[in-house]
Design a protein that fits this description.
The chain has 122 residues and is of the alpha+beta class. Helices cover 39% and strands 16% of the residues. The protein has 6 helices and 4 strands. Strands 1-2-4-3 form a 4-stranded mixed β-sheet. Strand 3 and strand 4 form a beta hairpin. Helix 4 crosses helix 5. The chain is globular.
Length: 122
């Protein structure tokens, strides 16, 4: 028989960080990339809710545009974070939003493993 995987590969997903903060993530409104949204659902279903996941093409063009504006640090990023009332952001280090949040007094870094940064609203 084929052995069903019990986790996603840590080379592509923030496995350790999600395990450490799993309860907090499941209880909060989290912005993360679509693939990592899939992972959060996998680890904490049915408690975990995500903004986007791998089915992002079903969310519609307007929501997709807002997701890209936030992740890329586009002009309305702060307004959009407020609009959707995110409490946490689990961002790849490559996201411009990760660099922007590092400079914001109302966000603090909970974890940074060199691949992902986990922010919580103060």
């Amino acid at each position: 028989p084929i052995r069903w995987p019990d986790n996603f590969p840590a080379t592509h997903f923030p496995v350790g960080m999600v395990e450490k903060y799993r309860a907090q993530l499941a209880a909060q409104r989290v912005l993360t990339m679509d693939q990592w949204g899939d992972y959060l659902i996998f680890r904490s279903y049915p408690q975990q809710k995500v903004f986007v996941d791998g089915r992002s093409d079903f969310y519609g063009q307007d929501l997709g545009k807002e997701y890209l504006q936030m992740s890329q640090g586009g002009h309305p990023w702060r307004t959009l974070l407020e609009k959707y009332k995110f409490d946490m952001v689990l961002a790849p280090v490559e996201w411009p939003l990760a660099e922007l949040l590092k400079t914001q007094a109302d966000w603090k870094i909970l974890a940074d493993d060199g691949k992902a940064v986990l922010f919580a609203r103060r």
